[in-house]
Q: What sequence folds into this?
């Protein structure tokens, strides 16, 4: 299910960014150049639509390389996630010992208490680091939320982990909602790993954390482990659903 990137606030921000860059409606002060026109035609966009899309992606925190890759894949950052993403890490031991805090930081949440009832998809984001929230973490969370019914059909619960302090969690939630064009709480609970103890136990530390996905079956066994090599290296929602389908076969 595609994630909408055309939220009104993001369009307004894109227009503001273009203005800051001294660009007119065509995205450049003197109108689009031949390269822009050719790429827009290749992607089935007008040059103006292409420039607006690029501005929105830049506003979302993507690097120039990530913007170019995203545009070549159709313009949705989720298109950089992998539909074919076999496990790339041995199953961690003692995952049932992980303890988190609720999103408000007030309640202790022991993973052991959530296992043995449903399949659990445990997704670690990169958290808030170096003054920003990873745009691919918000995109991934939005993609998972957009497929909530599909996960429920497979008797799976998704748990999203935000490592570090929860001070910036509202910013993260707002960013996810902007992709989904919704408001309020997210479809899945967001847990805090405030002291990074879970990150350390799973050996996924980097800045705060490497984007990682684990699937735990109803018997409490880790049946899928994927640790990203970069901030775009993640299994797509479709890839995770395929792993859950394999549990039913």
A:
């Amino acid at each position: 299910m595609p994630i909408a990137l055309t939220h009104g606030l993001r369009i307004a921000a894109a227009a503001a960014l273009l203005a800051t860059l001294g660009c007119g409606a065509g995205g450049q002060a003197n109108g689009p150049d031949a390269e822009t026109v050719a790429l827009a035609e290749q992607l089935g966009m007008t040059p103006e639509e292409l420039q607006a899309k690029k501005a929105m992606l830049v506003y979302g925190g993507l690097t120039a390389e990530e913007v170019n890759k995203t545009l070549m894949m159709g313009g949705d950052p989720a298109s950089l996630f992998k539909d074919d993403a076999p496990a790339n890490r041995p199953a961690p031991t003692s995952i049932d010992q992980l303890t988190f805090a609720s999103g408000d930081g007030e309640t202790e949440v022991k993973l052991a208490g959530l296992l043995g009832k449903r399949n659990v998809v445990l997704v670690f984001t990169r958290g808030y680091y170096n003054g920003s929230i990873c745009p691919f973490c918000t995109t991934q969370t939005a993609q998972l939320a957009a497929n909530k019914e599909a996960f429920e059909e497979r008797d799976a619960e998704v748990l999203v982990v935000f490592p570090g302090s929860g001070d910036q969690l509202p910013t993260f939630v707002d960013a996810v909602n902007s992709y989904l064009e919704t408001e309020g709480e997210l479809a899945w609970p967001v847990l805090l790993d405030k002291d990074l103890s879970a990150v350390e136990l799973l050996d996924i530390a980097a800045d705060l954390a490497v984007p990682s996905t684990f699937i735990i079956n109803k018997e409490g066994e880790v049946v899928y482990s994927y640790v990203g090599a970069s901030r775009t290296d993640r299994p797509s929602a479709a890839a995770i659903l395929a792993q859950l389908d394999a549990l039913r076969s």
